[in-house]
Task: inverse folding
């Protein structure tokens, strides 16, 4: 295991109860500043739609905003849902970002719509057909970013020659297959769908084909990490996350809720079916004091053999979330 492995942050700009998008953008800015100061490697933002309490819908705009406010941290998408967009437009947008912020912009690509089926149809009528063209559209993006595209009839300006790094994102074996075949780095969404994570990483490593972009496999796991001074404090903070996933399961569109006093009581109040789904979605979560997290994350890194760790931390209180970033950085320095 590489010591220490890089640590990064996935931010969804989730609006908390009694807050709004304006306040959330301010909080996102403060998180980015702190992550940059602490030496986090990446700050990724995710594309979601028709979710009243997720403020990262215009992902490209927010990436540019965060990049303009930071100095060293790499800013990118975790991810852009490619079937929603024309590869040409994505290349133009990210080529522009890469021109403004050289060597700091990267493009994580997903195949899902990032929303419900009705909204996916509102984004583009042929979403299903485009999702089937995902591998072909990844190749098209690579072409638009390359210098070799200068003789093509359709060109993406100012993307040409920027060679924006592309990551394949996923939560299943399909994404692992594509990342391995294309010789691209692979990031797994363990923060909400961890079930196939270890299997996908193993398949990716075993089937990886070196490319002009990458000589050897490169893996990143995104997991939920919530740290506090004690295990009990961290568990209480985590109850906002568990409420969030329960609301997702029940299609109950609420902002991020404040924590409750007892996680066990909250879980026991759920129906058996809801509890099953919430437990599945949160299985890739690490919650506790520094001492607990040092042990658990070290075991996870050794077992998964990942090259990088990215965290998601749906914490209600902004000051606690800022503290969380500091504690996790300290944890990673001791692993």
Result:
């Amino acid at each position: 295991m590489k010591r220490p492995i890089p640590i990064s942050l996935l931010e969804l700009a989730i609006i908390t109860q009694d807050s709004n998008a304006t306040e959330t953008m301010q909080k996102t800015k403060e998180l980015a500043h702190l992550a940059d100061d602490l030496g986090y490697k990446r700050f990724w933002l995710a594309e979601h739609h028709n979710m009243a309490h997720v403020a990262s819908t215009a992902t490209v705009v927010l990436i540019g905003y965060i990049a303009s406010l930071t100095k060293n941290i790499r800013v990118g998408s975790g991810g852009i849902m490619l079937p929603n967009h024309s590869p040409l437009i994505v290349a133009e947008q990210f080529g522009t970002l890469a021109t403004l912020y050289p060597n700091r912009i990267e493009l994580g690509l997903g195949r899902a719509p990032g929303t419900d089926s009705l909204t996916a149809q509102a984004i583009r009528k042929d979403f299903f057909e485009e999702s089937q063209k995902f591998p072909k559209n990844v190749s098209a993006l690579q072409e638009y970013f390359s210098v070799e595209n200068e003789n093509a009839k359709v060109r993406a300006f100012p993307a040409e020659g920027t060679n924006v790094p592309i990551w394949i994102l996923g939560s299943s074996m399909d994404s692992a297959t594509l990342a391995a075949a294309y010789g691209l780095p692979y990031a797994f969404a363990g923060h909400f769908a961890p079930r196939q994570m270890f299997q996908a990483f193993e398949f990716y490593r075993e089937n990886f084909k070196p490319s002009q972009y990458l000589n050897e496999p490169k893996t990143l796991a995104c997991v939920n990490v919530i740290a506090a001074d004690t295990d009990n404090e961290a568990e209480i903070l985590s109850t906002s996350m568990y409420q969030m996933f329960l609301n997702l399961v029940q299609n109950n569109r609420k902002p991020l809720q404040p924590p409750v006093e007892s996680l066990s009581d909250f879980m026991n109040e759920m129906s058996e079916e809801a509890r099953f789904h919430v437990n599945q979605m949160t299985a890739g979560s690490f919650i506790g004091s520094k001492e607990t997290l040092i042990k658990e994350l070290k075991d996870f890194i050794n077992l998964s053999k990942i090259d990088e760790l990215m965290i998601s931390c749906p914490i209600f209180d902004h000051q606690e979330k800022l503290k969380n970033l500091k504690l996790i950085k300290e944890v990673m320095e001791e692993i």
